[in-house]
Design brief:
The two termini are about 25 Å apart. Helix content is about 80%, strand content about 0%. The protein is built from 10 helices and no strands.
Length: about 240
């Protein structure tokens, strides 16, 4: 399969994403919106400024984005390995590196489409906010969290559980040891920069901007692991 035909195949990859994950993301987002945003709307008081309301909505939206990214990345490579689909998919001469690299960005496009759709729910329950800011934040978290998930999925059959454990574990360890000056504090600096997520979420979704160092740290960490995932695909057989 040449590059042009692989590019056209992205439409089929997008369709598969919508059927297998996109619908789930929208349904979960609607349920989440009902459970979280409806009580939030009822709690809004005249004393709350529009800026405060937007920042509170930003924090709520940030939680949904993390869940949606986990769904979008679940089994992106490992499912084909566990189910044996790779035998049929790569029966023709096509590079797994190019195929899954393209799939990673197709899933990003599908995720952004779902989040834009869900933005209509946020408009109804909590008032207007900048959809472009939500797109920016979703893209950042997808690269940051998704890059790690892509690497884990290339290297392991248990990517979703492992990714969740890494993300939560990094947050816990940073909370416990991230403020010290001993070897433990220096060691946790190698973990994913999850301690930056909440502040970046509130800032980007509310204002469209965030500290550049935090953005580069999150995006760079995920991009590095995305490249490492491509290296694993190039050097390791999917049958392993």
């Amino acid at each position: 399969m040449n590059r042009g035909r692989l590019g056209k195949y992205s439409l089929w990859q997008f369709r598969d994403f919508v059927v297998e994950k996109g619908i789930s993301i929208v349904i979960i987002g609607l349920l989440w919106g009902y459970l979280q945003l409806l009580p939030f709307r009822q709690s809004i008081s005249p004393e709350m400024t529009p800026e405060l309301i937007v920042r509170l909505v930003a924090l709520l939206a940030g939680s949904l984005v993390s869940i949606a990214v986990l769904i979008a990345l679940n089994g992106i490579i490992s499912t084909d390995r566990k189910m044996g689909y790779y035998r049929f998919m790569f029966a023709k001469p096509v590079s797994p590196v190019r195929y899954y690299g393209q799939l990673f960005f197709v899933h990003l496009a599908g995720l952004l489409s779902g989040m834009i759709l869900l933005a209509g729910v946020f408009f109804f329950f909590a008032g207007r906010f900048n959809v472009w800011n939500l797109v920016l934040y979703t893209s950042l978290i997808y690269i940051s969290l998704g890059g790690i998930g892509f690497f884990i999925s290339a290297a392991s059959k248990y990517d979703w559980v492992t990714l969740a454990a890494v993300w939560v574990g990094a947050r816990v360890l940073r909370a416990l040891y991230g403020t010290g000056d001993d070897w433990k504090s220096k060691a946790v600096e190698l973990l994913p920069p999850v301690h930056k997520v909440d502040s970046v979420a509130g800032s980007i979704i509310a204002t469209g901007a965030a500290p550049l160092n935090d953005v580069l740290w999150l995006a760079g960490y995920g991009a590095l692991f995305f490249v490492l995932g491509l290296v694993v695909l190039q050097r390791r057989s999917l049958a392993a």
